[in-house]
Specification:
The mean pLDDT is 86. With 243 residues, this protein is α/β, with parallel strands linked by helices. Strands 1-3-4-2-5-6-7 form a 7-stranded mixed β-sheet, with helices on both faces. The radius of gyration is 17 Å and the shape is globular. Helix 3 runs parallel beside helix 4. The two termini are 32 Å apart. Strand 6, helix 5 and strand 7 form a beta-alpha-beta unit. The chain is built from 6 helices and 7 strands, in the order H-E-E-H-E-E-H-E-H-E-H-E-H.
Length: 243
């Protein structure tokens, strides 16, 4: 009986991952904006992707959506300074938006541009009404930097009260050995501990675009967020809940 239950659970997990990856693959460009006022007002749940320049954000988005050039990866980190929106779901009835926010923290970017985009992202994370989830990309070899913690502070109140879900993807995990990967997870959980409440949905997962590891798990979580926001089904737990 136990083996039958295990096989059924495995089959269900495979089906969920296939459905989630099929959904992320529908992503298509909608619009770009240099400031919040240019973004369309929408009732669709919006999932934002954020992270330092060079954390692998654009690559992760392209890997999740199985599209090579959906998210623009500039050869000069920090050069992309727009919020790009992508629709997901049927072409005639989109059900979710992905928001690709500019990378932050690249030293060569002029101070004025840095400050302007820090304010835009702060406003977006604090007040964007349709925001339902945030995916934060952290280079697994570096862990949380001061800038990452500052960005989390912008959205912390909405995460803590459960209004916005949070998934941290520890990117470039293929560069770590098993011991280093375990330590990266432990340190990330510790960094996220203060955001954890009974209402919060906070998770962290190792992710490698090169090895395609963690891709299916992340897709399942995001698909679950979308379905939950639309009132279809409860969102699944994040890959590694922060406790």
């Amino acid at each position: 009986m136990t083996e039958l239950i295990s096989a059924a659970s495995t089959a269900a997990a495979v089906a969920d991952e296939k459905a989630a990856l099929g959904w992320t693959h529908t992503a298509r460009f909608l619009t770009t904006a240099s400031q919040l006022t240019e973004l369309p007002q929408t009732e669709l749940p919006e999932i934002a992707f954020v992270g330092r320049s060079n954390a692998g954000k654009s690559t992760a988005i392209n890997t999740l959506t199985q599209q090579k050039r959906l998210a623009f990866a500039s050869k000069t980190p920090g050069r992309t300074q727009h919020i790009n929106l992508f629709e997901l779901g049927p072409k005639t009835a989109a059900n979710t938006l992905f928001a690709d926010l500019p990378g932050y923290g690249y030293a060569a970017v002029a101070r004025g541009a840095k400050l302007r985009w820090q304010r835009v992202m702060a406003d977006y994370l604090e007040v964007r009404r349709s925001l339902s989830g945030v995916v934060l990309m952290i280079d697994s070899r570096l862990g949380f930097t001061d800038l990452d913690r500052q960005l989390l502070a912008f959205v912390a109140p909405r995460v803590s009260n459960g209004a916005v879900k949070l998934l941290v993807l520890l990117t470039k995990a293929d560069k770590l050995n098993r011991s280093e990967a375990h330590m990266a997870l432990v340190q990330a959980q510790a960094a996220l501990g203060e955001l954890t409440t009974e209402q919060a949905d906070v998770g962290v997962s190792l992710f490698s675009a090169l090895k395609k590891s963690g891709v299916g798990d992340a897709a399942v979580v995001l698909h679950g967020w979308s379905q939950a926001a639309l009132g279809a089904v409860p969102a699944p737990a994040a890959p590694v809940p922060v406790v």
